[in-house]
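TA notes, week 10

Several of you asked for a full example with nothing omitted. So below is the full record: structure tokens for the whole chain, then the designed sequence directly under it. When grading your own attempts, check the secondary structure regions first.
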């Protein structure tokens, strides 16, 4: 269980670090400003910080396995939907996950 949780955290950290690498290619491809992409990352980080205490409470209520599985599904959905993005509001929506 510890190994699975570790892998989940490493995967989530990798997904959180991806915007730094994607910033310039997204600007060049879609012509979006740094403001739009930075806003998406900022919203993501703020929500990540605000939900942490509630995630701990949910883990206590429903168990680590269920909460981790749900979190991984949300991260997976956000990353999968990112490839379909073509409008700036969509990047804000998908990077919230």
């Amino acid at each position: 269980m510890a190994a699975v949780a570790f892998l989940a955290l490493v995967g989530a950290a990798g997904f959180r670090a991806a915007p730094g690498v994607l910033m310039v290619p997204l600007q060049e491809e879609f012509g979006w400003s740094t403001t739009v992409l930075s806003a998406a990352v900022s919203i993501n980080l703020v929500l990540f910080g605000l939900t942490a205490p509630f995630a701990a409470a949910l883990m206590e209520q429903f168990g680590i396995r269920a909460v981790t599985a749900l979190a991984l599904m949300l991260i997976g959905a956000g990353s999968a939907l990112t490839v379909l993005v073509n409008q700036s509001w969509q990047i804000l929506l998908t990077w919230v996950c």
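The two ends are 23 Å apart (CA to CA). Use that as a sanity check on your answer.
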